[in-house]
Design brief:
Elements (H helix, E strand, L loop, with lengths): L2 H21 L9 H13 L2 E2 H8 L3 H13 L3 E5 L7 E5 L1 H22 L4 H18 L40
Helix pairs in contact: 1-5, 2-5, 3-4
Length: about 180
């Protein structure tokens, strides 16, 4: 492993974290970076079981569950039963959650454009190529491959990119069932 490459990426990651934080704008008062990441995972990969979301976020399922509880209360995600297996509970991003992701992405795009504008065109292309390879190695889903809100199989009018499900309160812990 090339230590100078690790150092360069580490330095660049601090800049990218600053861009990500600033891109949340007003949503940062209501949404943490970790919660925003959960929204991005759900927007980019579609509905997830809690264990799968926890794995994607590299956190314990209980941590993902608490994060989702907060996002549900904010109306940014919802819990629903899977059609194929009614025992399975999925979480998916709501229209409001997609809006948070969309607005943050637009702000982040503008911030990144400002930074890239300070570089010569050939360096911009080299940075883009290197970051594309880095994102691929990290397993990040490119924006162009995100499921659309009107994806096949979605019931008309939900606007969430997921099948419409009846709204039912899902018990998330034994304590809530008492």
């Amino acid at each position: 492993m090339d230590a100078s490459a690790v150092d360069a990426v580490l330095t660049a990651s601090r800049s990218l974290i600053a861009v990500a934080t600033r891109s949340l704008g007003a949503a940062a008062e209501e949404t943490t970076i970790a919660q925003y990441r959960a929204l991005v995972v759900l927007a980019s990969r579609g509905p997830q079981r809690m264990a799968d979301l926890a794995s994607a976020l590299d956190v314990a399922p209980s941590t993902a569950g608490r994060m989702c509880d907060r996002l549900v209360r904010k109306g940014l995600i919802r819990r629903h039963r899977a059609r194929a297996d009614r025992r399975a509970v999925l979480v998916s991003v709501t229209a409001a959650g997609r809006q948070v992701v969309g607005q943050a992405t637009a702000r982040r795009r503008a911030l990144i454009e400002d930074i890239l504008a300070k570089l010569p065109a050939d360096t911009q292309r080299a940075v883009a190529e290197a970051l594309r390879a880095f994102a691929d190695a990290a397993g990040e889903v490119p924006d162009s491959q995100w499921p659309s809100p009107g994806a096949a199989g979605e019931a008309a009018g939900t606007g969430l990119g997921v099948p419409a499900q009846p709204r039912r309160r899902v018990r998330t812990s034994a304590r809530e069932g008492r």
